[in-house]
Amino acid sequence: MKRIILLGASGSIGTQTLDIIEKRSSEFTLVGFSVGYQADMAEVIYARFPSVQAVCLRQEIDAIEFKDKHENLSVLYGDSGLLDLIKETEADMVVNALVGFVGLVPTITALKLNREVATANKESLVVGGKLVNDLLDQGHGKLYPIDSEHVAIAKLLAEAKEKKIDKILITGSGGALRNVPLEELPNATPEMALAHPNWKMGKKITIDCATMMNKGFELIEACVLFRRPMEDFEILMHDESMVHSAIRYRNHRYLCDISVPDMHGPIEYALEEGKGKYEIKRVRSLKKLKKFHFHDFDPKRYPSVEICKKAYEKGGNAPAILNASNEVAVEAFLNYEIAFTEIPYYVEKALKRIPFVENPTLEDLLFTDSMTRGYTRERINLDKR
Ligand code: NDP
Ligand code: MG
After folding, report:
1. How far apart are alpha carbons 97 and 262 in whole angstroms?
2. Measuring from each residue's beta carbon to the nearest atom of ligand 1, which residues come in under 6 Å?
3. What is the span of the domain harbouring residue 290?
4. Residues 324-338: b if buried by 16+ CB within 10 A, e if exposed
5. Are 156 and 226 within one domain?
6. Pocket probe mutation, ligand 1, options 99, 127, 264, max atoms within 8 Å of Cβ
7. What is the tens place of the pLDDT at every residue in 18-46?
């Protein structure tokens, strides 16, 4: 029986992970979980999973209320609560379904305790990929990706003949604004950008899909996970999100991973440590696949991808600056404070402005994150005057 701690249980990946734990209750058991501001969800989840021993909420006031009702449980709160949840609860695997930088320290804490970590939280790998890989190299814990493209690549690389590989193609749909004329993009509203054609996900990643900052992050994530240089990867635009990634051989044959767009499959794959017993909604017949559309990537429409590549190549704390300024800019866009096309503008401003640190420690990354947030927030406020 695998004992699981789930961080971010109230989110899109979190709730789908709960479905799988419930469905396969003879193999997986939930021993701890966290929610953010949706405190009501904690009651619902605990009622569904009585095996839980510890719960972490975002706010102290919610934690006090929850503890009053459940004296037998360990009830924690805040950033330190997430870490205590990991440290104090006996578990085999931590599933990180948090969104944003807040996921970094929990991933590092879990690895240091030699836990298996299944992570959807790509921000922690973008910002702290080197620290995470150093821990893995020192024999601390195991790491399994949940992101669908990376699960696809892991499966494809297990099949592929290394010598024959030309490129690894990471597919991207282009997000909700892919058909909006370029000159109209500055007027795109949050409602428009949130209407993703193929996936139902949390708000932040849905906006990152529309800018394709998400794909830039995924390129970095792929370099970290598969320990390969950026030039091994290429983006392939694919409208239907059915081909999750592909390998192009030197003789121009392709190896593709095809399945319906449903995160239950990749999550299950990660929970099983990539052993591949998982069952997903199957594509029952090739006839059902209908038409697939592929296009070249358009760097003019999606400047964020180049920004990500440059930040990764620069290294040091540059990816931390990239991530923090993007988090602040996305939130400002969702609050109608800045235009859609200003998201990469503020990210570039921060990358130019925040001091570079070549070999950052975890403390340096935490400092960079908070400095970048402060700078980007202030820059937006000044520009609004
Ligand atoms: P959601 O916004 O749906 O969920 C995020 C979760 O994190 C929620 O449980 C939220 O709590 C919690 N949370 C957010 N901020 C904090 C905080 N400061 N402290 C504690 N908890 C917090 O996001 P998704 O599930 O869509 O995405 C999660 C991660 O997975 C992201 O990194 C994303 O890029 C990645 N991913 C997502 C995919 C998807 O299909 N959704 C696909 C591939 C990757 P609450 O809501 O209660 O406030
Ligand atoms: Mg993805």
Report:
1. 16
2. 8-14, 34-38, 58, 97-100, 102, 120-123, 147, 199, 201-202, 205, 263
3. 149-296
4. bbbbbbbbbbbeeeb
5. yes
6. 99
7. 999 999 999 999 999 999 999 999 999 99
> Do 214 and 160 sit in the same domain of this protein?
yes
The count of residues in the chain is 385
Give the closest ligand to the alpha carbon of residue 264: 1
pLDDT in tens, 96-117: 999 999 999 999 999 999 999 9
279 is a domain residue:
yes
Q: Are residues 158 and 198 in the same domain?
A: yes
Buried-state track 84-116, b at ≥16 Cβ within 10 A, e below 16: bbbeebebebbbbbbbbbbbbbbbbbbbeeebb
Distances (CA, A) of 301 to 145, 159, 296, 305, 342: 28, 34, 12, 10, 13
pTM for the full predicted model: 0.97
Mean pLDDT confidence for 167-171:
98
Supply the CATH number for residue 80's domain. Answer: 3.40.50.720
- Looking at the fold, whether 105 and 244 belong to one and the same domain comes out as no
Site to probe by mutation for ligand 1, drawn from 13, 17, 366 as the one with most ligand atoms within 8 Å of Cβ, is 13
Cβ(14)–Cβ(6) below 8 Å: yes
Instruction: Say if 308 falls within a structural domain.
Output: no
Q: Which atom from ligand 1 is nearest to the alpha carbon of 208? A: 34
Q: Which of 106, 65, 329 is nearest to 210 (CA)?
A: 329
Last residue of a domain, which of 145, 168, 201?
145
Ligand 1 atom nearest 39 alpha carbon:
47
The answer to the question of residue 116 being in a domain is yes
Neighbours of 274 (CB within 10 A): 16
Number of structural domains found in the chain: 3
241 lies in the same domain as 229: yes
